[in-house]
Write a structure and sequence with these properties.
Elements (H helix, E strand, L loop, with lengths): L3 H6 L1 H5 L5 E2 L2 E2 L5 E3 L11 E8 L8 E8 L3 H23 L1
Antiparallel strand pairs: 1-2, 3-4, 4-5
Amino acid sequence: MKRYEEFHESKFLYNYSKEIEILGEATSGFTLKLVPQLRTPNQSEWFEIMIEPDVVKPTSIYRISVVYRSKDKSKVEKFTQDMMQILMGIIDIIER
């Protein structure tokens, strides 16, 4: 896993963060939350993947939260089977 400083300097997060100054300090993204475009959380077809560095051990642990919902049970089963590969792919992008 990349050092905490490198995580915040990642092109991926930088490109998707607006630079905001709070209390006289520049800020950056800490939590990445991915959701489907043009859908809302109350729809039956929905996913939400949240990834952030652990607060206590930000240089070695990610906290990950996943919500996946579909009317089609086979899509849920497929996602469940592929979830670790999907999550590792996202982390790979973050750590580039």
